[in-house]
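Sharing a chain and its predicted structure for anyone who wants a worked example. Both blocks are below, sequence first, tokens second.
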Amino acid sequence: MYRSTAILATLLICALPACDLFKSGPELREPGKDVELTAVVLLATGSVTADGEALRAGSILKSGQLLKTGANSFCDLQVRGTDSSAMIRLKANSEFVLKGRQFGQKREILAELKKGHGMFDLDKISKSEEFQAISPTAVASVRGTKYELMVKGDSTVIEVAEGQVSSRPRVPALEDLPPEVRERSVVVQESVDQLKSKEVVLGPGKKAEVQAVQVSPEVEEAARKAMEAQAQGPEKAKEAAQALDQSVSEDPSLKQELDKAAPPAAQEIPDPEMQQKLEEYKELIRIEKEKIEGDDVSSAVSDRNRQNQAKLMNRIEKVFNKPSETLVLMNGARVSGVVIQIGATYYVYTVNGQVAYPESQVSGIEF
């Protein structure tokens, strides 16, 4: 009788989510809700698209859209409707998604750099907001600063120019789950809490390379099944979170991997490199919030780019490693910018985008 009771008690305990592997953390907060965030495109040079549609200066990037930059391309954004008025520069061959979640009175702004190189410049933000820049391997949390993320294969380099950044590794198998599932899972929340305890605060002139936390094939499979609950409603999300917790509770490898995860090691950024970075941040020039509140922001963006034309054209010239020239058309018109000829077409890159002319319309080029 005693033996049967003991066995039954053991089974009941291990039937609880996450068994005893993750039982020490806080209670889960209420799941959040999506927040619609938008960003104004201030500068788009080269191939810049959102969900496959071309972006130009004055375009609006919406929450959840996948922004891509091609080779010899970059894009400057200003996030709207937040305290930080975050400025973001996405360099060549980058992929980026802007999202937001609301938890009661607190809002999380999530700037997800899926690949490539991103620069971030934030004003000081209020306690009711949290801005996180996320890569496949790292999370960088800030309260107002200038910093960069560079995704390099299976790691991310975080570099700080001004202010402070808290950096930690991610466990992508769990943290890439849909928020509807992620926010209802004890295992996910407590895994994140454990990684937060290993955060390293980077100050000005510091950098760190952050590796992701890898998990076993069994945990990967449990996460894959939970992923299928996306957009199926709260009840399905809750069931998926419970199934994930139950499955992972039977695999001690996750806690072992979290225990092994090392805090990122801070290193110095060489002074010449720091000076170059600080100079580039001067190009991230905000527009007053009230001027970019509506749907039509093209005039405000054009004014901003015209007023800072020399500085912005200098950046375009560096991207193409080519000085500006003037394309002279057959009709007498003159168009100045970085001129690139591809086949029988001339492309002129300016602060307000690029224009193309067939060779038959071109009289010549003035240097």
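Comments welcome. The chain has two domains: 20-37+81-281, 309-366.
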